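Exercise 7b. Backbone tokens:
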């Protein structure tokens, strides 16, 4: 397996972020108008806010990981998330653990993400928690 390095994974995540933003921003404007983007309060404004900003990204990310072994950004760049032991696609439990691991990786001053640059298998903390690796498919 040829492991995907730090920078290509950063670019894949940026692509995914742009895709999500292209969906989230118009939806939030539809539900809340200018109020959402100008409010001083950072607390969720309602059920739509929680669904669009938290549930939708979870479903998008975990859904793509389970069905395609990659998000659109990773697919575009020829990357795939696989089980570290078998090289097969990852299951729902691994996907959920990996997603939760994203937050843990971020809360520690992003060290869990930066770890990818220094790890022998280019695994971030979220990968280690879920038993996954990101590999190049081409």
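Sequence design result:
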């Amino acid at each position: 397996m040829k492991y995907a390095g730090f920078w290509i994974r950063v670019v894949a995540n940026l692509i995914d972020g742009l895709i999500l933003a292209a969906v989230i921003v118009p939806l939030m404007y539809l539900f809340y108008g200018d109020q959402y983007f100008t409010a001083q309060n950072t607390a969720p404004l309602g059920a739509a806010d929680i669904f669009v900003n938290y549930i939708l990204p979870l479903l998008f990310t975990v859904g793509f990981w389970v069905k395609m072994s990659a998000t659109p950004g990773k697919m575009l760049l020829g990357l795939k998330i696989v089980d570290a032991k078998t090289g097969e696609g990852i299951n729902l439990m691994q996907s959920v653990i990996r997603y939760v691991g994203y937050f843990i990786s971020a809360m520690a001053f992003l060290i869990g993400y930066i770890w990818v640059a220094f790890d022998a298998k280019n695994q971030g903390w979220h990968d280690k928690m879920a038993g996954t690796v990101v590999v190049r498919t081409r």
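Instructor comment: The chain has one domain: 2-136. The beta strands are 79-83, 132-136.
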